[in-house]
Batch of 2 targets.
Target 1
Amino acid sequence: MMIWNQNKECMSREEMRELQGKRLHKLVSLVYHNTPFYRNKMQEMNITPDDIRTIDDIVKLPFTTKQDLRDNYPTGMFASNMSEIVRLHASSGTTGSPTVVGYTRKDLAIWSESVTRCLNAFGIGRNDIVSVAYGYGLFTGGLGLHYGVENLGATVIPTSTGSTEKHIKLLRDLGATAIACTPSYALYLAETIEKMGLSMDDFKLKAGVFGGEPWTEEMRVEIERRLGIKGYNIYGLSEIMGPGVSYECECQCGSHIVDDHFYPEIIDPQTCEPLGYGKQGELVFTTLTKEGMPLLRYRTRDLTSLIDEKCACGRTAVRMTPVVGRSDDMLIIRGINVFPSQVESVILEMKEFEPLYMLVVDRVNNLDTLEVQVEVREGYYSDDINAMLALKKRLANRMKSVLSINAEIRFMEPGQLVRAQGKSQHVIDKRIIK
Ligand code: DLL
């Protein structure tokens, strides 16, 4: 398969590390001179841009957290004058102020090129028609994918979210060959297509560009089966750029990081000590070439590990394994770490359930409780109480063996669980509210 940017995507590791070192030195000078936040931090730590010469020097630099971005709301972290900033986005953060990010013209060009690398790796080319069903607006998903598709030379349908039935009609009538949306929305699309009585033979879809939220291998299998397409992972976050920070290739063995622009590290989230390849920890990124809002060692809170082995596709970039969750998404229930993705993999491996779930955590008499809400699929639902109890018991046992704690299972009425248009919400933690 053709590689979009052969020079960068297949550069030898030695050359890449040299390039990364040069870019890091330049970046550190930029933020030292233009961002008071970083100058103060570096002065406190007694370092100057001259101390940063190679990429290995990165460990001398300070970390940046989401709280730092909040403290400098709205534009205190910008390293360029507003006259150079041509676009703003903002994250939808559920608590406190949103995080505002700014891009220069060059930043936007790099972002589009990164997304183009992803689409190309998914086998999408000039002759494809791509429906972008991520939200357009302050969220980076819609516009991020949009310009990547245009830069590739394919045709973009700027669908955004909402009006699912109209979207399905357009997908069919325009002969869309690819769709970009959250994996949970892809499943909702499949459900709606089935409800409308349409067959996938009426569509020309072949590829899905899925990201914006963690998803499991089981979910991929389910989406691929129901939509009759191949689903690829695209990862990213607004603070670093938006979608397009990493992407799967045809080998689908981890996601290649666009590491000539975004340098990854893995740290222990408790001690902040760097961890080696293959170890799971918190992903940290440094934006090597960004001008608008460059960040040093930004703590993403995403939990993953890095792979440094050669990939069969010929790309040399370091890969990241699928994000298992966020360090702040991790629930601690009766002292045990629980990730929503674990529950998801259990539900998706059982054919009796819709691929939807909600975890409700509470504290009753000082004891944490976990309720898992699921919908039984039509065709598996029956009036036979004993059969339903047996199904419940089977799910509860499977949950127990994966989570190591007991979960109360609750069967919901068909259609009762929320179908997300964008990122899905999987946890209600009532302990926080109390
Ligand atoms: O979600 C950017 C994006 C849009 C990526 C569309 C891919 C596709 P934020 O809203 O800032 O940006 O949220 C970033 O979403 O730190 C992860 O926790 C999660 N996330 C994004 N993509 C993936 C993925 C966009 N492929 C946060 N797998 C990140 C797992 C993902 N988690």
Target 2
Amino acid sequence: MTNKLIIFDTTLRDGEQSPGASMTKDEKIRIARVLEKMKVDVIEAGFAIASEGDFEAVQAVANIVQNSVICSLARALDKDIDRAGEALKGANASRIHTFIATSNIHMKMKLQMTPDQVVGQAVRAVKRANRYTDNIEFSPEDAGRSDEDFLCYIIEAVIKAGATTINIPDTVGYNIPHQFGATIKSLIERIPNSDKAIFSAHCHNDLGLAVANSLSAVLNGARQVECTINGLGERAGNTSLEELVMAVRTRQDIFDCDTNIDTMHILSASRLASSVTGFIIQPNKAIVGANAFAHEAGIHQDGVLKHRETYEIMRAEDVGWNANKLVLGKHSGRNAFKVRLAKLGVEFNDNASLNDAFRRFKELADKKHEIFDEDLQALVSETQTESYDEAIKLVSLKVCTETNEKNTATVVLFINDKKKTATANTSGAVDATFSAINSLASIKINLQLYSVSNVTQGTDALGEVNVRLEYNGRIVNGQGVDTDIITASAKAYVHGLNKVLTVTNKAHPQI
Ligand code: KIV
Ligand code: ZN
């Protein structure tokens, strides 16, 4: 058995299935670049047939990423497999991940197919995928509630047809660690050709057990785990990459395998995924939460100062904490700026976007003396412009607030290159700003979430605002950063509106 544990990241596919976490192509590219830097083995870039946007995102990631295998999801249908194969054409190394449900309840109620029909369709899909790549993954959806004899039968057949990875999904997060591990072990032992494939775990977190179930699978022979940054994913989410990777790395006394992940990039990947999706990281979240390495009790602090390992089982620096050194200042040049960003995994598509980011950096340096890595990341997040033309641009904002008085916001926007101005007068500065923007944009938006967080410490820190907007049943996220939080709010709102105007509907893979 190999001692390499393959990390298959599905932030861009299953992660994106979290309600409200839809991402644009450019956002997916940014996340994919960080995943590549982190040395993720396989990146599931999307579900190519879901929409034109999904197809383009898989294609773009496949063309850009060089060092990870790029994968697209496909139902066990010819048209899905062909679309995935087409999207992956430009990849250095590609994989097609095809799936069909195998639990009695799914076969009967959802697919309305007999078990034999399901096996036939699965085998056909794997053979078709073979036209495009020899790296084929098969998932029996809802395996966690499927009959084990049937799983053995279908898995043997798909391996024979050419599947090289067998992924066992606990689609509804129903399994318990010892039981899920036993299933993996039993499948590997019982299926005669199991040695021809790598077994993988794909766990959902409905009972809070996704990481535990995945670890149990690894202890029982799985050599791939499917996970997402910050545990994003359908409903309660998927196995969290950072927790899984650090558990295996920290407990090498227990696991006889390890991943290739460069853990130094974990924190920046987590922050990027959080900022793109608007899913805030809870402070007590393991590994990446603000309190994950903070010791409050005096006795703990004393212990850590005397000998770190009294209360710490991992080094915060190893996952990217404490990297927020003062890096650049007012007098730093364009080259130093570019080199520092390259170290953070940020590259620019062209000189114009580098120049734009550098101009904003200089503006920020005028307002804020100390500029940290986090500031740079937030700044470029905003300046890495979307490849679509933004219909709405914020030109200026003037806000007047006074205790016990209504607040007035005057907003100037470019809408389709026409300059327009509106003023609103309401009880709050943010509310007045959004009302003024709404009156100019003339679309009825439902604001589902508004949150503000500080990028670094201090009252001169950059404020990052996330908004979640709903329009005609479609949900998008918008982000904005600025040292002024009302301006950051306006930027976030305009960002979200532009997405509403461009993002197209997409199909859900599991419906
Ligand atoms: O949860 C699930 O079953 C999935 C499959 C498509 C692998 O996401
Ligand atoms: Zn899933």
